[in-house]
Design brief:
alpha/beta; binds S-adenosyl-L-homocysteine; globular; 5-stranded mixed β-sheet; single chain; 17 strands; 7-stranded mixed β-sheet
């Protein structure tokens, strides 16, 4: 709840205090975590009838989230030991995310209001999810204002041995490294797992271009799927180096060993233009850019950037090839995104065919309005 939607009491409490909300007639509405320093003054934990928020309450929420991910642990499926265990508000714990990477659990907080509750949350998490190490991460706004952090800092290892580099985990049987301390998000973009698997299934015999590759999630799946060549483009040299290491981790797979990889550390728009001019064409092009719209005011501009990317992507896509384009901006509406891309493609004389639209994977449930940030289209053009 934003402070502005509270009639009284918006200035009460310290970070992490429990706040009880009543309606104008003094009837119970909800209980939430107070954060006086955030525009989101109260993060709702519970609504409906009054309840006791205690260790047991946190334990039940975390246990429910853990159980929901059981299909990912199914031993008959290719090994996946890197996934999201708690997805914030959608798992009833707003502002708290927990990702597991093999034995390393990464707890990421988006508000200092969680700090006083770590003594309940940490044992509950470790109880549900057997981990040998627990890393605490904090978002940028928390790192700026350290007064309510009770001496804790971003990257602190709360349990287990110190980290001397990335951890290695499995996703659909492939090995990847993640850097839970210095990487983006909690070290890996776990939300793209299903889309990567789909790319893997479409890559056989193709030259694949993975734009905004980060550490090469899509690249490694394409290689295993039998791509002839994979080209990964990212502005970050460290990301491109990590793609090489992730491919090396999977060289035991003959398809990965047979695939030729080219890493390009440069601006995606410039690389696409150069490739297009030089006549280079690919059978499958993936465009998975960073968030283009940080605020409502940037949505129009973001949609134009997506359209521009679509057209650049099509300019290097063989006729009849597959375009994969994603957006992770929660401000951008799925329908607007898909429409914009469709129009941009038609304008280029390459209308999209057989389009499939995908969204969130099982471990990234969405249970509130505006929670659906990830959208992706697979289409022939
Ligand atoms: N597809 C990735 C996630 C992409 S995150 C995966 O599956 O893991 C977005 C990436 O875009 C980041 O790695 C960032 O370094 C890169 N990036 C941001 N701006 C860029 C630009 N102008 N050109 C190329 N890469 C860029």
């Amino acid at each position: 709840m934003y402070g502005t939607s509270l009639l009284r009491g918006a200035d009460l409490g310290r970070p992490g205090d429990l706040g009880v909300v009543f309606d104008r007639k003094d009837r119970f509405l909800a209980i939430g975590l107070i954060d006086p320093s955030s525009p989101i003054r109260l993060r709702i934990l519970h609504q409906g009838s009054p309840a006791k928020i205690d260790d047991d309450w946190f334990r039940r929420r975390i246990r429910a989230a853990w159980e929901e991910r059981a299909p990912l642990r199914d031993p008959s499926r290719p090994r996946t030991d890197g996934y999201r265990v708690v997805n914030g508000e959608s798992d009833g714990l707003p502002g708290l995310v927990a990702d597991i990477y093999a034995g390393t659990l990464v707890l990421k907080l988006y508000t200092a209001a969680w700090i006083p509750h770590l003594r309940s949350v940490v044992p509950a998490l470790l109880d549900a999810c057997p981990a040998q190490r627990l890393v605490l991460r904090m978002n940028r706004s928390m790192r700026r204002d350290t007064k309510h952090l009770h001496g804790l800092e971003d990257g602190r290892i709360l349990l287990g041995a110190p980290l001397d580099g990335p951890v290695v985990f499995h996703e659909n049987g492939l090995r990847f490294e993640a850097d839970p301390v210095d990487g983006q998000k909690t070290g890996f973009f776990l939300d793209q797992r299903d889309n990567r698997a789909r790319v893997g299934a479409l890559s056989k015999g193709l030259d694949v271009l993975n734009v905004f590759s980060y550490t090469g999630g899509f690249s490694v799946y394409a290689a295993r799927g039998g791509a002839r060549t994979v080209t990964s483009v990212d502005i970050s040299r460290q990301a491109i180096d990590a793609v090489e290491r992730n491919l090396a981790l999977n060289r035991g797979n003959p398809a990965v060993a047979a695939c030729t990889h080219h890493g390009v550390a440069d601006d995606a728009f410039a690389v696409l233009e150069t490739l297009s001019r030089s006549g280079r064409r690919f059978g499958l092009v993936i465009l998975d850019p960073p968030m283009f719209a940080q605020s409502a005011a940037q949505v129009e501009q973001a949609l134009r950037a997506y359209a521009r990317l679509t057209q650049l992507g099509l300019s290097v896509l063989e006729r009849g090839g597959v375009l994969v384009q994603a957006s992770c901006s929660n401000r951008v509406d799925a329908d607007d995104f898909f429409r914009m891309i469709g129009e941009a493609a038609s304008e280029r004389g390459r209308p999209l065919r057989d389009a499939t639209f995908t969204g969130h994977a099982l471990d990234h449930p969405v249970r509130f309005a505006d929670g659906a940030y990830l959208k992706c289209v697979f289409a022939k053009a």
